[in-house]
Design a protein that fits this description.
This protein has about 475 residues and is α/β, with parallel strands linked by helices. It folds into two domains: about 230 residues, Spore Coat Polysaccharide Biosynthesis Protein SpsA, Chain A (Alpha-Beta Complex), CATH 3.90.550.10; about 210 residues, Hexapeptide repeat proteins (UDP N-Acetylglucosamine Acyltransferase, domain 1). About 20% of the residues lie in helices and about 30% in strands. The protein is built from eight helices and 37 strands. The protein has a 23-stranded parallel β-sheet that branches. A seven-stranded mixed β-sheet has the order 5-4-1-6-10-7-11. A hairpin with a 2-residue loop joins strand 8 and strand 9. The longest helix has 21 residues.
Amino acid sequence: MTKTTAIILAAGQGTRMKSPLPKVLHPIAGQPMILRILSHCLAADFDEARVVLGHGHHLVQSVLEPFASLVQKQLHIQLHQQAQQLGTANAVGTADIASLDGDVIIVNGDHPLITSEDLKNFVTDFRERKLDLAVISVNLENPKEFGRIIRQSGQLKAIVETKDASSETLKIKEVNTGIYVAKAEVLKKYLPLIKNENSKKEFYLTDLISLAIDGGKNVEAILCNNTKVAHGVNTQEELAAATAQVFKSKVNQLMHAGVIFIDASNAYIEESVTIGAGSVIYPGVFMRGKTAIGPFCVIEPNAFISDCIVEDGVQIKAGSYLEQSHIKSQAKVGPYARIRPDTVIGKSAQIGNFVELKKVNFGDHSKAGHLSYLGDADIGQNVNIGCGTITCNYAADRKKYKTKIGDRVFVGSDSQFVAPVEVGSDSIIASGSTITKNVPEGALAIARGRQENKEGLAKRFTAGKKEV
């Protein structure tokens, strides 16, 4: 089987981004552009990807190396550095061309809307047409600064850059996307022949086309119907437009699968997120990472959910913030709840407004209605947590300790648990108690100062004060 290698050009400085971050690290819907393209190379079943780095290469390398290590069995990733910015042909030449074999697809690291299906189709078309070299083209209503595709009797003759084009040539709407597919031997033979006889003294990859045609090679422009593959990112405006397009595509995909959006233009769902059919998504929702939402859930306005498992029938109320947690079926969370990492909320449990949970196992059918903090705790089933309850998990020795509360415990309002402490099942904690010792099963725990009423003493504090 023919080997497929992707060469990804990611050396550009991106001065028009007006940002200290290397251009290819700018995120599109939560993922750096360069990682999006590498992920699509992986999904397209390519054998190898060679990334040409330049500006900010140390920072880009620090992002790419963990990904390369993670996928090394499926996609071999090499990093190459372009020492000087001498043009696109020079960038390709730094990717150790001599060691290539099979077919090579060249893509730009700042074209984030290309998909794995696009990449597969380009290589498949190239092979089916038995080509030696191909450039991918699209028709654009407003070609702007794109190089124009020149055809004669339908056959590709040349690519003319905008600055060199006549007024007639500028009327052509078919443009060069900057994506090429070539046999490795074609690159090896013709890339070294490219000269820098131009005003910028750079080596342009477009010259490869005329060289291969003159050499009698089978060269074509493969016209692609998906104009998004030509969407390059050079400014913050283009970055935002690309991100909006990715979010829009994801929402459309989910709607086709039966997810209900109150306002499809005002929901922000990263591509890695899954949502079950029949779930309702309100405006302003943001979901990211490996979040998986089950069927028949309701996610109310302005909820933020990151890397969470949310089972079927769950209601996430407005303004809640959830991360790295597991919400089991029929549970209710919020409004304005914060669920921090390593928390599991049980079936049909209820977490109310302004409740914060961190590293908590919260049992089935249990409730924490409002204004409580529970951290580093195991909470049993059918437990009622009163308003203002706190688990005091962080001690003066800078260690965190655990609170354990059994099943069917009633915790009165304004109670504190000084961990480590355990509360037995079927017990009651009186309101206002500070629990520092274990509570036996079935006990009533009262830990507060005794109330004293001083008859008539209030007059001392009010005497001589004027009414407001």
